[in-house]
Amino acid sequence: MHDLIIYTTADSRSLIKLRGKDQSVWLKQCEVAQLFDVSTDNMGLHLKNMFAYGVLEHKSVTEDSSVTAADGKNYLTKLYNLAPTWPAGYRVRSPREPA
Q: Per residue in 45-69, pLDDT tens?
């Protein structure tokens, strides 16, 4: 079970759902991308490269989570904890532009 935390970016353009668990925060890939104001594909590429080059071990910083969609079906989604989030954000180096 995760504790839900709603984070509003400094520019107030994004509300991001953070899931607190085991003294860490967990986010979906699209939420990490939103946090750093980049595309989901761009963030996915950086995460994939960090795992491929051994910067991080995939099993230790990700977990699968079941999400119920609007259609009532359950879907598996991958959550990332803070360990890959900050290095990925550093790699994209995309400061959020003022609104």
A: 888 888 898 888 888 888 898 888 8
Rounded distance between C-alpha atoms, residue 56 and residue 60, angstroms: 8
Q: Are 49 and 70 in contact (CB under 8 A)?
A: no
How much is the pTM?
A: 0.71
Q: Give dist(CA 25, CA 85) in Å, integer.
A: 10
Percent above pLDDT 70 for the chain: 81
One DSSP character per residue, 38-82 reads: --HHHHHHHHHHHHHTTSS-HHHHEEEEEEE-TTS-EEEEEEEEH
**Beta-bridge partner residues of 75:** 67
- What's the DSSP call for residue 10? T
CA distances from 8 to 15, 39, 51 (A): 5, 18, 28
Question: Closest Cα partner for 80 from 34, 32, 39, 11?
Answer: 32
